[in-house]
UniProtKB/TrEMBL annotation:
Belongs to the binding-protein-dependent transport system permease family. The keyword DNA repair does not apply. PANTHER family: ABC TRANSPORTER PERMEASE PROTEIN MG189-RELATED (PTHR43744:SF12), ABC TRANSPORTER PERMEASE PROTEIN MG189-RELATED-RELATED (PTHR43744). It is a multi-pass membrane protein. The chain crosses the membrane at residues 12-33, 73-96, 108-129, 141-158, 184-209, 242-263. Keywords: Cell membrane, Membrane, Transmembrane, Transmembrane helix, Transport. CDD domains: TM_PBP2. This is Carbohydrate ABC transporter permease.
Length: 278
């Protein structure tokens, strides 16, 4: 009986902490919606408003009239999807090479990949812009997609997962049956590590969707803006209409919330699967 009471007490505190954590995580989104339904004066009022207003559709219409926001959402969806899919496949391929293939300089090259994670993103902006300018990709969406198709973290993630999941005996048996290295990766290794690759692709999708610095530097035309740059375009140089800005931010957040509702359970399962196997 004492043990059961102790377990029930732990469960009660656990659920209480989870509820508080959920409220803390969801409150910024709720506050964003409140401001998106009111105006700047209401957003700065003390005590703050906690009830949504009735001005959301008017402000959303202003967002659509001020900038090509629908096109910006489509641009963000294209860029984020391409980057997410590219990272899922290319990082898995690189991780497979580092984990299961033997070649000269493998450890040194993997160390170089890891060292790139220590370099701040801001330091790579200038050389990256010079390369994009030399290729003639300034003000194009491929300037956003190509640099993000692989990441050092993604390669490390997939290398660790493949090392812990794929047995060398399985690869040797496939080679005895006449399978090439590409066939071993695509038909044997990748299906096994697909949950981890899916999680990595979702991380890449969210990161690309929320990216602001690089699109702000390389994009010039309004019809090629991503969602984050379109939100920036809602602001002028002198003041910020918080209601208008929050309306655009809320519209840009809805696709991510919908994505998490659809694949959230699979994403958490993939993270836990990698945690237990790694």
């Amino acid at each position: 009986m004492r043990t059961r009471r102790r377990i029930d007490r732990v469960r009660w505190w656990t659920y209480a902490l989870l509820v508080l954590a959920a409220v803390a995580c969801l409150f910024p989104l709720y506050w964003m919606f409140i401001v998106a339904t009111t105006d700047t004066a209401t957003a700065t009022r003390m005590p703050p408003e906690v009830v949504p207003g009735d001005n959301f559709f008017h402000l959303a219409g202003l967002v659509l009239d001020t900038v090509p926001f629908v096109q910006s959402l489509l641009n963000s969806a294209f860029v984020a999807t391409a980057i997410g899919a590219g990272q899922a496949v290319l990082c898995a391929l690189a991780g497979f090479a580092f984990a299961k293939l033997t070649f000269r300089g493998r450890n040194a090259l993997f160390l170089v990949v890891l060292l790139t994670m220590t370099v701040p993103t801001q330091l790579s902006v200038i050389p990256q812009y010079m390369i994009v300018s030399w290729l003639g990709w300034v003000d194009t969406l491929q300037a956003l997609v190509v640099p993000g198709l692989a990441s050092a973290f993604g390669i490390f993630w997939m290398r660790q997962h493949i090392s812990a999941t794929i047995d060398d005996e399985l690869m040797q048996a496939a080679r005895i049956d006449g399978a090439s290295t590409w066939q071993i990766f695509w038909r044997i290794a990748f299906p096994i590590v697909r949950p981890a690759a899916l999680v990595l692709g979702l991380f890449g999708f969210v990161t690309a969707w929320n990216d602001f610095l690089w699109p702000f530097i390389v994009l010039k035309s309004p019809e090629r803006y991503t969602a984050q740059i379109a939100i920036k375009a809602l602001q002028n140089s002198y003041d910020i209409d918080l209601g208008l800005a929050m309306s655009g931010s809320f519209l840009a957040t809805v696709p991510l919330v919908a994505l998490f509702v659809v694949v959230g359970r699979r994403m958490v399962a993939g993270i836990l699967d990698g945690a237990f196997k790694g």
